Amino acid sequence: MSTPEYREQVEAAYPELQSIESDGLREKVVEAWVLALERGGWKDIEDIPYAWNIHEKTNVEHVRGVTRIAMRSAEEQREFHGADPDEDTIIAACLLHDVGKCYEYVDFAEEDQLLDPNPTYATEEIPHSLSGYALAHEVGCPISVQRAIPHFLGEVPTRTLEAELVKSANSASSNAITQSAMGITLQEWVEKYSQTQ
Description:
The protein has 9 helices and 2 strands. By secondary structure, the protein is mainly alpha-helical.
């Protein structure tokens, strides 16, 4: 599979990319996804599961849900509270917050879903929020985007308004997915299954 096909997959999977005003930032988000897909060896972006043990919901559905929730929350923060969150930072960070699953979830993929994962990157040893942060750094995303990607407690000591928005939108989407897929809350899923408590 060639890079242009990955690019097409990313652009088709995430129409929210078009809401990023900065052409340069939009390109960096796509570049990070392309790198992650190549290194993870995935054939199709839609094959990456939401969680290692929830395959009926995709990572694409979750990432889009997080992005959509955060965009609406940012609008409320501006209109209702008079805050001024940076929309490009929020959208880019949401779209990248789980890009690291391309590395972390290789061991949970079906054999026919993978090409040739690069063992340097494809491992569940590093939590996806940290590998996602590293990918954003590698492609040159602004520090404001990088620091909004780690979303587990304690990964970033001082959180920005944008980072908190990404984190809360992630929880909202995750709660919806675990409820619809397994009939449990996100907290119940974390207590029973999380690898990064």
